[in-house]
Specification:
Helix content: over 70%
Order of helices and strands: HHHHHHHHHHHHHH
Shape: globular
Distance between the termini: 5 Å
Number of helices: 14
Oligomer: single chain
Number of strands: 0
Radius of gyration: 19 Å
Structural class: mainly alpha
Strand content: under 5%
């Protein structure tokens, strides 16, 4: 399998799907107001189905925890580095600083990253399963916790302890977390995934999971908007440098030094190369942070990632087979 070719193919396929989405939007078949519906479908239906159907078929060991820990370590470095650059070099006001730091650190692994992994490693259940689990342990779950905290601070929202505790409880009952637990328990116990009604249910979940790439393209087409490059060019370039270039290179070198398996390093490259997450915009809106900057950085990094992800792969030399 040539992963570089698969990545180029995915980028070309995704651009075509994005153009289809934009055409449908221009013709009024879908509207910007439908974005929340597609987001809910992805988070509440498609991702849980993909998580259960994939994780239940893989073998999980403690090595995945080590991989996720290395990912978290690099994200912590980026968090501190982007905070220093945003505050002292770019002189961003508080409402913008929190958004800039999150967009420079938190990638869209749970949605776009999984779309990449499921397409590029199609047919490799173990690789897709690892990608799903690492994306949640290293980015998804930490983001659920820290994104609200940063946006509360950035938006000058008073910290309400009872509200925060309620938020933490909600995290444990989100569909993706429940799906992870079901999938892992199913795999650990060794329950069947084929035959009879169970086989039919897993087939249905597999079919639902295959719609992820198209639904992500539709969602991006609905949320894309004019980017004020001139007003934010420096913030865009620095943010893109952090999340699209520095993060994957740092993680690649760390995991190579630690002697991780090539397949794990490959999976983490794609996950760490993802652009800023959509959720940052939602948190910025909710807690009064700089929403225009959040939207600008999220959309800009998504467009730039189409080029940076395949462009950096030859430099790392682990994607030829």
């Amino acid at each position: 399998m040539n992963l570089y070719f698969n990545t180029i193919e995915f980028a070309a396929t995704f651009i075509i799907l994005l153009l289809v989405s934009l055409i449908l939007r221009q013709q009024g078949v879908i509207q910007k107001s439908d974005a929340s519906l597609f987001a809910k479908l992805i988070v509440n239906v498609v991702l849980p189905a993909l998580l259960i159907s994939t994780l239940s078929k893989i073998s999980v060991n403690t090595d995945i925890l080590k991989v996720a820990a290395s990912f978290l370590f690099v994200e912590a470095i980026l968090f501190g580095g982007s905070f220093a650059v945003g505050k002292y070099l770019l002189s961003l006001p508080r409402a913008s600083l929190g958004v800039f730091v999150l967009c420079s650190t938190v990638g869209s692994t749970a949605i776009l990253g999984i779309a990449y992994i499921s397409f590029i490693f199609e047919g490799e259940v173990e690789a897709v399963g690892k990608g799903l689990l690492i994306s949640q342990l290293a980015v998804g779950i930490p983001a659920y916790i820290f994104c609200p905290i940063v946006c509360m601070w950035s938006g000058n929202t008073d910290f309400d302890k009872s509200q925060w505790l309620a938020h933490c409880k909600t995290i444990l009952t989100t569909p993706t977390i429940v799906a992870i637990l079901i999938g892992l328990v199913w795999s650990y116990i060794g329950l069947p995934t084929s035959g009879g009604l169970i086989g039919t249910a897993f087939t249905a979940m597999d079919i639902i999971g295959r719609s992820l790439v198209f639904l992500v393209a539709i969602l991006l087409g609905l949320t894309i908007q004019r980017i004020p490059f001139k007003e934010n060019i420096l913030a865009i370039l620095v943010c893109a440098l952090f999340i699209l270039v520095v993060e994957p290179i740092l993680l690649f070198n760390l995991q190579t030094w630690l002697g991780f398996e090539i397949k794990d390093i490959q999976i983490c490259y794609f996950l760490s190369s993802m652009p800023a997450a959509y959720a940052i915009i939602a948190y910025a809106v909710r807690y009064g942070a700089d929403v225009p900057l959040a939207s600008t950085l999220v959309v800009s990094t998504k467009l730039l990632s189409v080029v940076t992800i395949p462009a950096m792969m030859p430099l790392l030399g682990i994607f030829n087979n």
